[in-house]
Structures are given as C-alpha cells and as structure tokens.
Amino acid sequence: MPQKNHYYYDTEKCEFVPVEYDTKNKLIHSLSFWLINGIVFAVIGLSLLTKLIATPAEIALKYENRALINQLKTAESSIVNIENQLEEIAALDNEMYRTILGLDPLSEDLRTAGIGGADIYSKFDYHSKEAAEILRSTATRLDHLERQIGVQKLSFEEIKSYYNSNQNRLRNVPAIKPVNGIILSGYGMRPHPVLGYRRMHEGVDFRAEVNSEVYATGDGIVKFAGRRGTFGNLLEIDHGFGIVTRYAHLNSFADGIRVGAKVNRGDMVALSGSTGLTQGPHLHYEVLKNGRQTDPLQFMIADITPEEYLMFKESQNGDEIAFIFRD
Fold it and tell me: What is the value of pTM for the model shown?
C-alpha cells in the first residue's frame, strides 16, 4: 500500500508542497501514534473489564451486601410476628383485664401511638432501592413497636395499681369455672337445641352429669334460689358492683343456700341437673353486668390462660363446640 504524503501550502510559490520527514521525525511520529492509540484502547478495555469482571474484594462485598439484605428481610418478618403478638396482648388487655376491673379500654388511637413531622427515615434513601425500602420499613416498624410497648406497659401498671387498691372488689369478681367440665356451647348466636331456630345464647353451657358439684365463681349474696321458667331450678348470686351470676338447670341446691345467704368463691352451692327446657344434663352459666348479659369467658381469668382465651374466641361461632380448660 503506497504511503500517503502530507502537504502544506507554500504562500510564496502559491502551491502545495509535500512535507518531508527525516528518519528521526518519522520514528517519533509513529511511536507517538501507536502509544496514544494503545493508551486509549487500554483505558477502554480496563473499563469494560471492570464492569464485567470484579475484583475479589468487590465480589466478597457483593455477597456480603446480599447476605445483609436477606438478614434484614428475615428481621422484618420477625417484627411482623411480634406486631401480631402485641395486637393479641392488646386485645386481651381490653377485653379481659380492663373489662373485668371496670377500667375503660384504651382507644385504638392511643394504642397506635402515631407520630408526625419530618421524614426521619430519609437518610436511607442514599442506599440502593431494595436496601432503602427494607431499612425504612424495618426502622418504621421498630419505632412503632417501641411506642406500642410503652403504651402497653403503662396500661399494665394501671391495672396493677387498680388491683392493689381494689382487692376487696376483686374477690367478688366471678373469676373461676362454676363446674369441672368442658364448654359445650359458647356465648352468642346459635341454633337452639330444643326449639330448632337460631337465637341468642346468653351464657355458656358446661358439660355436667346429674349431681355434679356447682361452685360459686366469686364472693356474693344469694339473690334467687328456686324454679324459674325454662331455666328450671335457678340460682342467682349478686356479687355487688353491678355483677350477677346465674346457674341454671340445677337438680338441687346445697344446704344453706337461700335468699340472703353469703357465699364465697369456690363454695359448693348446688348440684347440676337437667331441669327446665333442655335436651340433657348440663350447667347453663350466665354473667350479667349492670343488668345486661356479658360473655362469661371474659371473667374466667383464674381458670383460663390468655392463649386459651384467644384460641376459644377464634373458634367460637355460636354453634356447638367443646373447649377444654386447665384443671
């Protein structure tokens, strides 16, 4: 291939004159050309290699970051489980402990314990999108949990303080099972076993053979002991503070049980039976608060654990059920 000549314009001759290089200039020109091109190609190659092939340190850092993100995801899942458990504790606090003691339940707004103001988690936005989302979610949940736990701690302290200053009242609370048996039917709507249509079941039915011992569930005064309509033989105990318990379908009353008699929690007050409108022997038990029927399960704090309470409430649908308490 013929070598290309370079020209310059000679203003005196008014013509283009070929540029003549000596051997030294030609060598310097060639070396400079290849050196510059070599540097350019080397830079381009290194850039491509950097993107396609990482150093051992970079590879290790990449795996470390992935492991940390996976751990954050696991921690986020654990936080969700803790949130669910705290919600169950809050439900027990409102439905059982505070209700029994006559304390007002804590509102949802108070338990949520939300905060406003500037975005305190914006510092995470400097990370990758995936990492930023996980860090923001985890930090938000942890802060929320911390506030909720603080609210729950204050609630328990209030309950403890109220209990310590109202122990006389708490002896009257109907806090135990009235009979040693499992629950056959809970509080709520259900098909009536005799009448056949759905109606409100205003108490709890316990399995009890004829002449099983029935116990007073709290200190109180006998309000009624006799025959009453579909209840058959019925016993009513006034526990004061607006609380009355009923024990229905009894076979007989214990000695000394009459209107005005004082009873203590755990006293044997009657024997179970099948009197009144019933398909068979069992004990129908009711709790009235200020004249209105209340789910007796909420009061059985001495014979039921929080876990048992939640399990029973989840399974309770007004139909026939069987639930075993601790002995």
Answer: 0.52
